[in-house]
Specification:
- The protein has two helices and three strands.
- It is an alpha+beta fold.
- Strands 1-2-3 form a three-stranded mixed β-sheet, covered by helices on one side.
- The longest helix is centred in the last third of the chain and has 11 residues.
- The chain is globular and about 40 Å long.
Length: about 70
């Protein structure tokens, strides 16, 4: 079985649809806010989709190109 098949019954799976991309290394959580870096691996469409999913948590999401937290 796959992780997706095991979790499917729990209604917690969300998928980034094409042409959105997200790389986990571009996401940082600090308390109740997720900071999403727009990079070659994570694009605006993917960040927007992830921010939408995070509203259900409820937590905040912020994203921008070349953030200082990646340095």
């Amino acid at each position: 079985s796959t992780v997706a098949s095991v979790l499917a019954g729990h209604n917690i799976l969300k998928f980034i649809e094409a042409h959105g991309t997200i790389d986990g290394k571009d996401v940082v959580r600090i308390k109740d806010t997720f900071f999403i870096a727009l990079t070659k691996r994570t694009n605006y469409e993917g960040a927007t989709q992830l921010a939408f999913f995070l509203k259900e948590a409820p937590v905040n999401a912020s994203f921008k190109a070349k953030p200082s937290f990646l340095n």
